[in-house]
């Protein structure tokens, strides 16, 4: 109990909670604000509810003060800064994607294991997913009412069920808030973008002699985001850190030099902004926006070889360095998605008896985001006929002189404009429950029962994107009776309009033909129904104290349905209509768009489970201290995969040494396959010459990318052990902890290619793939179902360090100085498919990912009755591109192989980053507080890497100014 009491009493920011429960979990009421005593103690990571209970799983608590000090428009950003949260997704991630459906999705990832292996709860209850992977969107939570956030750094499947492999993030709301409070905030970056407005208001009141409690909150936020830059290397707002760094594969493995080399201001030799002839005798002729030809300026003093391969002498494989980079497309990526959200939340509770309540909650939220994945719609390998009337006469003359009738052509398609993805998520969540206590045989028992029904609608619309097969026919133009038309008569009869891509002046009719106004779309509905019943009590005493028991059961049903446009989805499920008329040029099976080919699908599963947890005190004396053993077991039945057991065994020992406590736990946890993995909407691809090893022949085959309802849960073994020091008499106000962790996940769900599926069956390496194909008809149709299987593994190990100290009246000054630091070291993070031809990959310290070797955060806060001042430092260590690369100096490199490619040490390095934030508050009146915050005070640019940027680690926005006013009454 002591550690949490200290954590919350002495640290108004991040508190190291060690999994304890204490009455100080509820923050003291502010002036003009009342809170009734809550009847239950909630311990995230455990179902035991008892005064003084200490759970063995380390837990970090982010309280309301810390949330306010960080002054973010989305509480997600505050929590995601914790060092143990690695790889979380937010508005700065997934901005390069067209088809993922995760743009703007704010979801947590603990230990770098991904959002699908982190369980996020609201008041200990599940939340309907905002994506078919099952992950919720934190942006849809009632953020102003959040009283604290518990982050459990360890497996909790035996307590809460599936997905709690990396841990649990539990948002605890203030269910007894009384009064009125609000927050108004605005922010802008140093570059004049990402203008943000946030308005929040919440009120609570009791009626009928304090037996009826009503809480209502509403909030609106609009973050403009940071948009794309122009073609070339410019970025939005004049940011200058992007230099088109590219990792070039020389494809030379045995000359003593590194196979992989980094090049800045890299220039592709395959396209330009308005078109480039890329091979043959006319190689190097480019075109400006008006279609006039000119000689392209290659970097690296490159000279076109004018051969069929399109070689440029003096340039690395596919790239030159410098020269004319005006056609480069990567600068067109959104740095941060724009996001607009609103949320309305209400809770009505009735105390029908002392410490017993029935309640209902209603949460309605909407989040709209949009982003631009990249500039243009790059097509590097086109064939243009010399007779095409859009080809300038001077170039046609050169075709004739060179004896060619066509040439290879590449373009960024800048004239077609840029694609944009719009996502609209709407969530409706209803909960009815009862909780309280009742006597049984002279002891008090707690109960907690609820029913939740959640609905999430996700609409994705892609604008300004081409239909690839229409594009191919539209650019193949001829002159017929003096009129420029499409060559293909079938396409011509179905509305084909000739498209001029020699330059940047296509006709409006041609643009509408290749890019119809009705673009790709996806309409998804997800529902979640949960019935949960839990009991907790202390039925008897042991020699060392009362034995605590918790038990209960849960039923859950998950469902999704997705419909897509017929040009992307194809098939007969969605007939062609006026907006998407039938067109014989297009593939009837769909997959016609340049990107954003969504599919139709549906699926459902249900879960039935029961659990029991016990906590037994085993030592209670002044000489030996106090110790307890905690154990739990859960049996879960999935309608898709059957029954699985999870369990945990652990304990704590409060040593007789002042302030010290030992803790440890080992558990078996699970991550069940999600709706997408089980029932993914099918995608069809034709494989015209697929090799059949069983009959030693090539066959026509159809590749179906589908879900796999035979998937079983991933099985994890999670072990943590640590020591904590809390508020010792020799240093009051100080607390610290060290926790080591080790996680191993088997049967990790992954996918294989069509060839691997057949070959692994043929060789007997992976027999479960044998039911995924049929190649017995040499004339077709044969098929291979490309789907996910349980075959990979993940191993990660490291430790967490936390410390805090509070100094009251420092140096005689009135007020409090609080110091706090949190750090995570990832010693290893090894993913292994276990398949022939592959090797394990240790991702720890690979700064292209989300798991740097070290990550820490420190805070210093001084506060008194009138004002506060806040400093925060965030840092992570230097890293590499890949631990599997072989580092060597030029001239001394060994043979480079597919699994261990060679690279120079300096090219393999990626620097870490240090960020400082500063903020403060001033009480204008006892009820009104003004505040400010500056994020990334020194305007630190992200590391320059060859994937544009890595927003999972680096801040790409730059310095951001925030200011606002909070009030309470």
From TrEMBL:
It comes from Sphingobium olei. InterPro entries: Beta-barrel_TonB, Beta-barrel_TonB_sf, Plug_dom, Plug_dom_sf, TonB-dep_rcpt-like. SUPFAM superfamilies: Porins. Residues 1-17 form the signal peptide. Its main location: membrane. Residues 414-937 form the TonB-dependent receptor-like beta-barrel domain. Residues 54-168 form the TonB-dependent receptor plug domain. It is found in: Cell outer membrane. This is TonB-dependent receptor plug domain-containing protein. Keywords: Cell outer membrane, Membrane, Receptor, Signal, TonB box, Transmembrane, Transmembrane beta strand, Transport. It is a multi-pass membrane protein. PROSITE patterns: TONB_DEPENDENT_REC_3. PANTHER family: PTHR47234, SECRETIN_TONB SHORT N-TERMINAL DOMAIN-CONTAINING PROTEIN. Belongs to the TonB-dependent receptor family. Pfam families: Plug (PF07715), TonB_dep_Rec_b-barrel (PF00593).
């Amino acid at each position: 109990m002591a550690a949490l009491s200290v954590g919350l009493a002495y640290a108004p920011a991040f508190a190291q909670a060690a999994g304890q429960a204490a009455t100080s979990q509820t923050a003291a009421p502010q002036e003009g604000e009342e809170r009734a005593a809550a009847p239950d103690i909630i311990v995230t990571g455990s179902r035991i509810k008892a005064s003084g209970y200490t759970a063995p799983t380390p837990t970090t608590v982010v309280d309301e003060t810390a949330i306010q000090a960080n002054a973010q428009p989305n509480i997600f950003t505050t929590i995601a800064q914790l060092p143990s949260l690695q790889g979380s997704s937010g508005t700065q991630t997934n901005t390069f994607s067209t088809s993922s459906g995760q743009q703007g999705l704010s979801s947590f990832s603990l230990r770098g294991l991904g959002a699908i292996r982190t369980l996020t709860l609201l008041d200990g209850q599940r939340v309907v997913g905002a994506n078919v992977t099952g992950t919720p969107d934190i942006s849809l939570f009632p953020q102003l009412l959040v009283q604290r956030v518990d982050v459990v750094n360890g497996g909790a499947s035996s307590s809460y069920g599936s997905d709690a492999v990396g841990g649990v993030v539990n948002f605890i709301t203030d269910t007894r808030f009384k009064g009125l409070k609000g927050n108004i905030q605005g922010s802008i970056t140093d570059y004049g973008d990402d203008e943000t407005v946030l308005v929040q208001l919440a009120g609570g009141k009791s009626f009928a002699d304090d037996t009826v409690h009503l809480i209502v909150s509403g909030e609106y936020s609009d973050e403009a985001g940071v948009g794309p830059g122009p073609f070339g290397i410019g970025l939005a707002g004049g940011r200058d850190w992007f230099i088109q760094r590219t990792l070039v594969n020389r494809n030379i493995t045995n000359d003593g030099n590194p196979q992989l080399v980094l090049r800045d201001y890299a220039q592709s030799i395959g396209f330009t902004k308005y078109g480039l002839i890329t091979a043959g005798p006319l190689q190097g002729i480019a075109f400006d926006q008006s279609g006039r030809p000119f000689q392209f300026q290659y970097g690296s003093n490159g000279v076109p070889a004018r051969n069929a391969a399109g070689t440029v002498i003096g340039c690395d494989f596919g790239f030159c360095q410098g020269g004319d980079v005006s056609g480069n497309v990567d600068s067109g990526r959104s740095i941060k998605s724009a996001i607009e959200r609103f949320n309305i939340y209400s809770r009505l509770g009735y105390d029908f008896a002392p410490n017993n309540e029935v309640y209902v909650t209603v949460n309605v939220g909407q989040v709209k985001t949009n982003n631009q994945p990249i500039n243009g719609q790059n097509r590097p390998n086109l064939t243009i006929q010399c007779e095409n009337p859009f080809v300038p006469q001077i170039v046609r003359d050169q075709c004739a002189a060179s004896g060619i009738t066509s040439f290879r052509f590449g373009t960024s398609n800048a004239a077609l404009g840029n694609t944009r993805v719009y996502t609209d998520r709407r969530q409706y969540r209803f909960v009815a429950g009862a909780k309280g206590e009742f006597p049984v045989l002279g002891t008090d028992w707690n109960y907690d029962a609820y029913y939740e029904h959640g609905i999430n609608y996700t609409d994705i619309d892609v604008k300004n994107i081409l239909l690839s097969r229409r594009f191919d026919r539209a650019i193949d133009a001829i002159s017929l009776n003096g009129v420029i038309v499409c060559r293909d008569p079938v396409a011509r009869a179905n509305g084909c309009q000739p498209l001029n891509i020699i330059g940047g002046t296509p006709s409006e009719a041609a643009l509408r033909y290749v890019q119809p106004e009705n673009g790709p779309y996806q309409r998804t509905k997800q529902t979640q129904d949960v019935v949960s019943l839990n009991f907790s009590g202390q039925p008897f005493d042991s020699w060392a104290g009362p034995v605590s028991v918790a038990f209960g059961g849960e039923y859950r049903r998950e469902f999704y349905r997705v419909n897509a446009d017929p040009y992307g989805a194809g098939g007969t499920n969605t007939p062609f209509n006026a907006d998407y008329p039938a067109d014989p040029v297009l593939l009837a099976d769909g997959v016609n768009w340049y990107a954003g080919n969504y599919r139709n699908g549906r699926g459902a599963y249900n879960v039935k489970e029961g659990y029991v947890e016990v906590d037994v005190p085993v030592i209670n004396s002044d000489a030996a201290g106090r110790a307890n053993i905690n154990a739990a077991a859960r049996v879960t039945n999935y309608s898709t995969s059957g029954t699985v057991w999870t369990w945990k065994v652990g304990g704590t020992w409060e040593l007789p040494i002042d302030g010290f406590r030992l803790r440890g736990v080992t558990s078996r946890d699970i991550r069940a396959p999600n709706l997408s993995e089980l029932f993914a909407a099918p995608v069809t691809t034709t494989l015209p010459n697929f090799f059949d090893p069983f009959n030693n022949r090539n066959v026509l085959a159809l590749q179906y990318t589908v879900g796999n309802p035979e998937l079983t849960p991933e099985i994890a073994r999670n072990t943590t052990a640590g020591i904590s020091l809390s508020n010792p008499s020799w240093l009051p106000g100080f607390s610290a902890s060290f926790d080591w962790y080790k996680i191993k996940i088997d049967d990790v769900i992954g996918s294989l290619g069509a060839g691997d599926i057949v070959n692994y069956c043929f060789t007997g390496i992976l027999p479960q793939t044998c039911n995924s194909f049929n190649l017995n008809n040499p004339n077709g149709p044969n098929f291979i179902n490309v789907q996910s299987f349980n075959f990979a593994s993940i191993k990660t190990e490291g430790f967490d360090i936390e410390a805090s100290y509070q100094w009251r009246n420092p140096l005689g000054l009135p007020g409090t100085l609080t110091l706090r630091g949190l750090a995570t070291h990832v010693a290893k993070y090894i993913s292994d498919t276990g398949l022939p031809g592959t090797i394990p990959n240790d991702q720890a310290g690979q700064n292209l990912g989300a798991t740097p070797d070290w990550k820490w955060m420190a805070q210093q806060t001084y506060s008194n009755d009138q004002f506060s001042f806040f400093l925060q430092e965030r840092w992570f260590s230097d890293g590499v591109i890949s631990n599997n690369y072989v580092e060597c100096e030029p001239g001394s490199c060994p043979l480079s192989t597919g699994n261990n490619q060679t690279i120079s040490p300096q090219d393999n390095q990626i620097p870490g980053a240090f960020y400082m934030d500063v903020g403060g508050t001033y009480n204008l009146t006892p009820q009104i507080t003004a505040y400010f915050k500056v994020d990334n005070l020194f305007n630190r640019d992200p590391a320059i890497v060859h994937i544009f940027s890595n927003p999972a680690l680096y801040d790409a926005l730059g310095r951001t100014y925030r200011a606002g006013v909070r009030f309470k009454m």
